[in-house]
Design goal:
The protein is of the alpha/beta class. Helix content is 57%, strand content 9%. The protein has 25 helices and nine strands. Strands 1, 2, 3, 4, 5, 6, 7, 8 and 9 form a nine-stranded mixed sheet that branches. Helix 1 (2-16) crosses helix 5 (92-106) and helix 6 runs antiparallel to helix 7. The protein starts with a helix and ends with a helix.
C-alpha cells in the first residue's frame, strides 16, 4: 500500500512539473544523443589539447550547470506552490516530504545528463564526470541547508534581505498573488538575466557565443525558456488567461507574415555578363590544348555533410594538390553540396592567398577548426526564437545571416593577406571562371516548393542543358556575398532555415534549402557538364581525358539493425534520412554503369566511417574529429590514386 502511494504521489508532482521534465529531456537529447552534442562534450577539459577554448568552455559549463540546476529547483517549487495536490491519504507526511525532495532531485538532472553524455562521448569514465557529480552533491546540500544559511547571513547583517523569499511547502496551493509578491525579486532577476543574455547575443553574436561555448549557450537557452514557461504558467493562474495557448497560437498565426530569412544580396545591379557554359568550355579547351595534345580534365563532386564534409573535402583536395602535378590547372568544374560547398570554397580561396600548397592547407585548417556552431545556436535560441512570436520580420534576428557573418569573421582571422574574400560577391571572386581558365564552382541547392534543383552558377546555361534546374542569379539579377552563396547550398533542416528568394521584380519567388534534398553528391550537375564537355571536344576535335573525382564522407547504412520501438513513428524519419544520405551513392553507382569514354575514369575518396564514430554533421568539430580526418586522408588518397580504373 505504501509503495503504491509513493508512486502515486511522485506521479502527481512529476505531472505538475512537466515544464522542467520537458526542457531537461530536450537537453538530454541535445547532449547525449545528437552526434554534434557528443563531439562538443568530448572536446571539454582543462588541458588545452591544442584548443584554446577547452578550459574556458569547461568552466562556463560548470557555472551554467549550477545555474540550470538552480532553475530546475526554483521552477519546480514555483509550480508546486500554486498547485493543490490530492495525495494518497496513506502516510501523508511522507507525501509532503516527497514534495520537498523532488524539486531538489530536479536540481541534479543537469549534472546527471552532462555526466552521462561525457561517459558516452568518451566511451568510459573520465575525471570530469567526478567533478560534475561533486558539483551536483554540493548544490543538493546547499538546497537542504539554504534557509539556515540565509538566516545566518542575515543575522550577520549581510545585505541579502532582498533574496529572502522562502515559502513553506504544503499540500494546498497558495494564492498566486501571494506567490508573485513573495517571489517578486526572483521574478525580476529572471527577467533581467533573460534580457541581458538576449542583449549580449544580439550585440556580440560571435564573440559572446564563442566565449560561452556551445554547451553554455544551450544551457542558457534551456534554463531561460524553462523559466519563461514557468512564469507564463504562474501568470495564467493569476490572470485566468491562457497565455501558453496564446503564445503557441501566435507562433502559428504570425508565421504567415514574419519570415525574416530573405537572403542577403549585393545592392549593385548590373546586366548579366556571365558567359554561357558552352562558350566557357570552348575557351577553356582551346587554351589548354595549346599546351596539351590530349587535355586532362578533372570534374570534382563534393558530398554534403556539414562541417565534416567541409573539412574532409578540403583535406582531400589539398592532398591531391600535393600529389598530382598541376592538379588545379586540370579542374574544369566543381559541383558541391552543403558542407562540401564550404570545403570547396575554402580550398579555392586559400589557393588565392598562398601559392604554397602547405601554407594554403594550413589556412583552411585554421579556418575550419573555428567554432561556427555557438553563434548560430545563440541566435537560433534567442533572437530568432523570439522572431517566431513577432507579427513582423526583423532581418537582424536571422540566424542564417549570423552563420554567414561568422564564416566571414573567421576567414579574416585565417587569411590576413586577403581577409574579405568571403564578403565579396560570388561573381567577384576570381575562381568562378571569369578569366576563362579557372574552375567553375557550381553550388547545388533545392527549391523547397517544387523539389527542383537550384544552381548558384558562374555561367549561364541553356534551358535544355540542365534538367529542371533554376539559375538563381538569373532569378534575382544580382550578385550575392560568397558566404551567402555557400550557405544556400548548406541550409540543412532546422539548424539553418530555408532562404527566402525575392526575384528581380521584387516578388517572392520561393525558398531555397540544402542541396542534399535534391541529391547529396552533386553528380547530376557534373554529368550535365560532362555531356557538354564531350559534345564540344568532339565538335572541336580536341582529345580529352576526363577524371571524375568524388569526395564522400557519409556512412554506409546497408547493414543497419532493424527498427526497435516507436517503429511507426521512426520508420518514415529513418527512411527519409537514410535515402537522403544514400542519394549520392545511388548516382555514384549509376556512374559506374554509364558509357564513359575509354580513357575516362572515376576516383572515389571516401572518409572511412565506423559504427560508433563521432564525426558530426553540424558546424563544429572537436580536436579528436579533425585529428582522425587528418590521419586518414593521406592513406585514402594514395590508395585510390594507385588503383587501376
Amino acid at each position: 500500500m505504501r509503495l503504491r502511494s509513493t508512486f502515486f504521489n511522485n506521479y502527481q508532482i512529476l505531472k505538475t512539473s512537466w515544464v522542467v521534465l520537458l526542457f531537461n529531456f530536450i537537453g538530454f537529447l541535445m547532449f547525449a544523443e545528437l552526434q554534434q552534442g557528443q563531439d562538443v562534450i568530448r572536446s571539454l577539459g582543462f588541458q588545452s589539447n591544442g584548443n584554446i577554448y577547452n578550459s574556458r568552455h569547461t568552466i562556463m559549463l560548470c557555472i551554467l550547470m549550477i545555474y540550470w540546476g538552480w532553475q530546475n529547483f526554483r521552477s519546480a517549487r514555483i509550480i508546486t506552490h500554486f498547485k493543490t495536490f490530492h495525495f494518497s491519504e496513506f502516510y501523508k507526511p511522507y507525501a509532503i516530504r516527497t514534495l520537498v525532495l523532488v524539486p531538489r532531485i530536479f536540481s541534479s538532472f543537469p549534472f546527471l545528463i552532462i555526466s552521462y553524455a561525457t561517459y558516452k562521448a568518451n566511451e568510459g569514465f573520465v575525471p570530469l564526470i567526478f567533478l560534475y557529480l561533486t558539483l551536483a552533491l554540493w548544490l543538493f546540500i546547499f538546497l537542504i541547508y539554504r534557509r539556515k544559511i540565509m538566516v545566518y547571513l542575515m543575522a550577520k547583517n549581510f545585505p541579502f534581505r532582498f533574496l529572502w523569499d522562502y515559502i513553506p511547502v504544503k499540500n494546498d496551493g497558495y494564492p498566486v498573488a501571494f506567490i508573485i509578491y513573495k517571489q517578486r525579486w526572483w521574478i525580476i532577476q529572471r527577467f533581467i538575466i533573460l534580457a541581458l543574455t538576449f542583449a549580449l547575443v544580439l550585440a556580440f553574436p560571435i564573440s559572446f557565443s564563442r566565449f560561452t561555448g556551445v554547451c553554455g549557450i544551450v544551457i542558457l537557452a534551456l534554463s531561460s525558456w524553462m523559466m519563461f514557461f514557468t512564469l507564463l504558467s504562474l501568470f495564467e493562474h493569476r490572470y485566468k488567461t491562457p497565455f501558453i495557448f496564446l503564445f503557441f497560437f501566435s507562433f502559428f498565426l504570425f508565421s504567415f507574415f514574419n519570415n525574416n530569412h530573405e537572403i542577403r544580396t549585393l545592392k549593385k545591379e548590373e546586366p548579366d555578363k556571365r558567359m554561357y557554359l558552352d562558350t566557357y568550355i570552348n575557351h577553356w579547351l582551346l587554351k589548354k590544348n595549346q599546351y596539351e595534345d590530349t587535355v586532362k580534365v578533372c570534374l570534382v563532386a563534393c558530398e554534403g555533410g556539414g562541417i565534416r564534409a567541409a573539412y574532409w573535402s578540403n583535406e582531400v583536395l589539398s592532398e591531391l594538390n600535393l600529389k598530382v602535378p598541376n592538379f588545379n590547372d586540370h579542374v574544369l568544374a566543381y559541383s558541391s553540396v552543403s558542407g562540401g560547398t564550404l570545403g570547396t570554397v575554402c580550398y579555392n580561396l586559400a589557393n588565392q592567398c598562398s601559392f604554397n600548397p602547405v601554407e594554403a592547407r594550413n589556412i583552411t585548417r585554421n579556418f575550419l577548426k573555428n567554432d561556427f556552431l555557438s553563434p548560430v545556436m545563440g541566435y537560433a535560441m534567442f533572437p530568432d526564437a523570439l522572431q517566431r512570436f513577432l507579427p513582423f520580420p526583423v532581418a537582424n534576428f536571422d540566424r542564417a545571416a549570423i552563420l554567414e557573418k561568422t564564416w566571414e569573421n573567421s576567414w579574416e582571422g585565417a587569411c590576413l593577406d586577403k581577409p574579405l574574400l568571403l564578403k565579396k560577391g560570388y561573381l567577384e571572386n576570381q575562381f568562378t571562371g571569369r578569366n576563362d581558365q579557372g574552375p567553375l564552382l557550381f553550388f547545388n541547392a533545392t527549391q523547397i516548393e517544387t523539389g527542383k534543383r537550384v544552381l548558384v552558377s558562374p555561367v549561364k546555361f541553356g534551358e535544355n542543358q540542365f534538367y529542371e534546374t533554376t539559375d538563381l542569379l538569373n532569378i534575382i539579377n544580382k550578385d550575392i556575398p560568397l558566404s551567402t552563396a555557400v550557405l544556400l547550398s548548406a541550409r540543412f533542416p532546422y539548424v539553418t532555415p530555408a532562404g527566402l528568394i525575392v526575384d528581380k521584380n521584387n516578388k517572392k519567388w520561393g525558398h531555397v534549402g540544402d542541396g542534399g534534398y535534391y541529391e547529396n553528391l552533386g553528380i547530376s550537375t557534373l554529368l550535365e557538364v560532362y555531356t557538354r564537355l564531350r559534345t564540344i571536344s568532339d565538335l572541336k576535335q580536341i582529345p580529352i581525358k576526363v577524371t571524375f573525382i568524388f569526395i564522400r564522407n557519409t556512412k554506409d547504412f546497408s547493414n543497419a539493425e532493424p527498427l526497435g520501438g516507436l517503429y511507426e513513428i521512426m520508420a518514415p524519419i529513418e527512411a527519409y534520412l537514410n535515402v537522403w544520405y544514400k542519394g549520392g551513392g545511388y548516382n555514384f553507382n549509376m556512374m559506374k554503369n554509364i558509357s564513359l569514354k575509354k580513357d575516362d575514369k572515376i576516383l572515389n575518396f571516401a572518409l572511412p566511417r565506423f559504427e560508433n564514430d563521432i564525426i558530426p554533421l553540424g558546424w563544429s568539430l572537436s580536436r579528436q574529429a579533425t585529428d582522425y580526418i587528418d590521419s586518414q586522408v593521406e592513406h585514402v588518397v594514395e590508395v585510390e590514386l594507385k588503383k587501376k580504373h
